[in-house]
Task: structure prediction
Amino acid sequence: VQLQILGSGGPGNAAGRASSAYLIWVDGVARIMVDTGSGTKDQFHLSGADLADIELIALSHLHPDHSAELPAILWPAGGNFQIAGPSAGGLFPAIDQFLAGMFDIGGVYPVLGERTSFEVITVPVDGSEPSRVWRANGISVLARSVPHGDVPTLSYRIDIGQTSIAFTSDQNGSDPSYNDFVRDVDLLVIHLAAAEDVVGRIAELHAKPSVWGQMATAANAAHTVVSHISTASSEVLAGSLQIVRDNYDGMLTVAEDLMCVELDGFATEGL
Ligand SMILES: [Zn+2]
Ligand SMILES: [Zn+2]
Result:
């Protein structure tokens, strides 16, 4: 089992990193894609994954840096996909409305609707109870809502045999009960977006580095991957990483686009 990072960047200037997207490889086949952020179409093709092998596309939320590349990735092959995403809230449509607005006749890409069909799994974001999203062939996917300002947002936990990986997605880290959802995972993917001195709207949306480190510690995560890097400054990034490390003693890896992380043995290799 491997995690491959297609995009390790966040919104804004991320120094060439594509935005959020991940593949789960099992026995050499890319079976699950989490997020389809802007800039990840080329990374998807560079990864060598085959769209026909993707059994589940799981979107965490509908910010463009997590969802905007979906039509480009599905174009031109199309296919039939199971796709999971959050229910509606505030300015954001539910995942089924989002897909209809994009691919139905009258939507913005009806040409893709002609060759693409979806089985949509709409995950409620109205509480802290985990929802079972999907299960097949020894893989179990759970989701739980996380506090990301007023944006309906899901964290996914994927258990494959004896190994487990969780994607925090974007969140401000203000819900301590969330730690139970990611307890004892082998691999925790966190979304660094804010510096320690963040205030205002960004602080409502994104956790500080110290909060991420404390979350990884509370969850007892064996290995934490820092992704969604949202600064072009290597000094700012280094400062934030030091604060994460000050609060977490486990193995820490800084994500790079196309990097693969082994879940059974924790060796890391770039492609
Ligand atoms: Zn984001
Ligand atoms: Zn976001």
Observations:
- Residues 102 and 108 are 5 Å apart (CA to CA).
- Residues 10-11, 20, 63, 65-66, 170, 228 surround zinc ion (ligand 1) (CB under 6 Å).
- The mean pLDDT is 95.
- DSSP finds nine helices and 15 strands in the chain.
